[in-house]
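User: Here's a chain of 206 residues. Predict its fold as tokens.
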Amino acid sequence: MTKKSRKPGAIHCNVTRRYLRNGSTKNSIQGLRVSLPYAHKVEVADMARSINNAHSATVADVLAVWSAMEGEIIRALEDGNRIALGNLGTLRLEVGAKAGKSTATSLTSSDIVAKGITFQPSKRLMQFLETLTFECDGTVSHPLSAQRTEEALAEHFATHTHITVRTYATLTHCSIATARRRIATLLSEGRIVRSGIARGVYQLKG
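Assistant: Prediction complete.
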């Protein structure tokens, strides 16, 4: 059975006003920021089930091949090779000198370190970007002040026992990335703790 091609819908985006770091007054508006809310994280198991629905390969077969591929990719990188991932692109190691050694007149083997892994998308993958369409709700959120943020959180916990990053972002009119940072701060301050209900769910401490 061959899976029918589907026409993807428009991707929803969040639009927020960006403010300069030195304040949030009207005169410090820097511009507009468009971001993706990433409503769902697609796991390998999700893709395996999708492949299973479209082809004869079982979920176990797909996961077994993927696990083997992961090992091969890591081994290829360990050998210093570039990896061509079909129509997706290529992976390669980025290397450089240790901090403070980049201006030295000579280097030894111990002075060289891995800086990261770079993915270079293929021409076909870049062309795919041209086919995407986007939408937003037409409104621009105003990030709440620190005082109003505290009030919004108090109002939320007056009727709810838990909060997520997405809920925090909605309550305070901030981006998902900002919400993650603020949740991390609340955790470090001991004001909230991770809930045992599910990953990514938090509750007031005590």
